[in-house]
Design a protein that fits this description.
Number of strands: 13
Strand content: 15-25%
Radius of gyration: 24 Å
Organism: Pseudoduganella ginsengisoli
Structural class: alpha/beta
Keywords: Transferase
CATH superfamily of the largest domain: Glycogen Phosphorylase B
Shape: elongated
GO molecular function, one term: glycosyltransferase activity
Helix content: 40-55%
InterPro entries: Glycosyltransferase_grp1 (IPR050194)
Order of helices and strands: HEHEEEHHEHEEHEHEHEHEHEHEHHH
Protein name: Glycosyltransferase
CATH topology of the largest domain: Rossmann fold
Strand order of the largest sheet: 4-3-2-1-5-6-7
């Protein structure tokens, strides 16, 4: 029998390699939560490449087993491109070069780009679109391009070792006089861009202070930055409650700050609010959130928190008041929420879920 040619050897080597999964994120730098999730997956089952994409920059990271390694960084010309068209072209070409078995992204637009690049399986959350191998003919081409993107799922992973309940007294964090024995801290996280409902939260907090401030010292902590931060600060100052609130701006110690909170509020449903709610639940906090969207799927009224109409500051204040008035209610709801996250949203559980999903969607070679 004749020995295999170099071409046959190369084809065999390519076939023997684990299937490639590409994750596309819009993060400016490495997505630490995604890296932690990949470390929970069985080493060697799949090859993973994380492509960071934004309108003006691209970066690329290879993950194999428990090791992450940079393999490509876009040049300065790409980073300086204002309209992002060059980045899209580079991303398209990169997908054509890498030929992944599956692409995983929360962007519907990038799913269309992946379809054009010939990626056979496109995963959006825990739902997928599949295409047969590209064949000649207008019907095959149209079926590939016109297959709709699938909606995102609630399968969000949380590092429950990083986000955990407070052990003992709250740490001495914040401006002087903000924390003291017996205070109740109402917290929120999110960009203060006017879309996350922080003005309604401040209004609800002021109503709560007027009704229950004499019974229990109340504090407000909002983590995030943006144009609404100045407006919220002005509202608090004009009501004489400036020293009762702390708006520290953007922080990289969110898990630590969540451990000084007693109740978590999510007054508006945004693409990021589901992750913040699950982080708060993992931290043992009850959730008071507006109704609708992912909030209604994550928060169980009367069990792990309360749901209120969006934009209704009075109803938000009344829901928060329950945790001020009823002793032990916040802890009971918070512990139930943490058990929910451990059962359905921990890194190990979500990694197993996605590994099984990849096994089902990617054909065995």
């Amino acid at each position: 029998m004749a020995p295999p040619t170099m071409t046959q050897q190369a084809c065999h080597a390519e076939t023997a390699r684990p299937p490639l999964v590409i994750h596309i994120t819009d993060a400016v730098d490495t997505d630490e939560n995604l890296l932690c999730l990949l470390r929970q997956m069985p080493p060697g089952r799949y090859r993973h490449i994380i492509l960071g994409w934004r309108r003006s920059a691209m970066w690329e990271l290879r993950h194999s087993g428990h090791v992450a390694q940079w393999v490509h960084v876009a040049d300065d010309a790409c980073k300086m491109e204002a309209d992002g068209n060059l980045s899209l072209v580079r991303l398209f070409r990169r997908l054509r070069q890498l030929r992944p078995a599956l692409i995983h992204t929360h962007s519907a637009a990038l799913q269309w780009l992946a379809a054009l690049a010939g990626v056979p399986v496109r995963l959006h959350g825990a739902s997928a679109s599949r295409h047969p191998p590209l064949r000649h003919g207008i019907r095959s081409w149209l079926s590939r391009i016109l297959t709709p993107a699938c909606p995102p799922s609630t399968q969000i992973a949380v590092d429950c070792m990083q986000f955990h309940p407070r052990l003992g007294p709250a740490a001495a964090i914040g401006p002087e006089g903000f924390l003291s024995d017996g205070v109740c801290v109402i917290g929120a996280v999110g960009e203060m861009d006017g879309k996350h409902g922080h003005e309604q939260l401040v209004e609800a907090f002021l109503q709560l202070v007027a009704l229950h401030g004499a019974v229990l010292p109340l504090r407000l902590l909002i983590i995030g930055d943006g144009p609404a931060r100045a407006a919220c600060t002005a509202m608090l100052a004009s009501a004489g409650a400036g020293r009762m609130a702390w708006l520290p701006g953007q922080r990289d110690d969110v898990a630590r700050l969540m451990r000084i909170m007693d109740v978590f509020a999510a007054p508006a449903c945004t693409p990021e609010s589901g992750s913040f709610i699950l982080q708060a639940m993992a931290s043992g906090l009850p959730i008071v959130a507006c109704q609708g969207g992912i909030h209604s799927r994550l928060v169980q009224t009367g069990w792990t928190g309360a749901l209120t109409p969006q934009g209704d500051a009075m109803m938000l204040a009344e829901a928060l008041a329950d945790y001020v008035r009823v002793a032990g209610l916040a802890r009971r709801h918070g512990m139930r929420g943490r058990r929910q996250v451990l059962s359905h949203h921990s890194l190990a559980v979500v990694a197993q879920h996605y590994t099984q999903l990849y096994d089902r969607l990617i054909p065995a070679k």
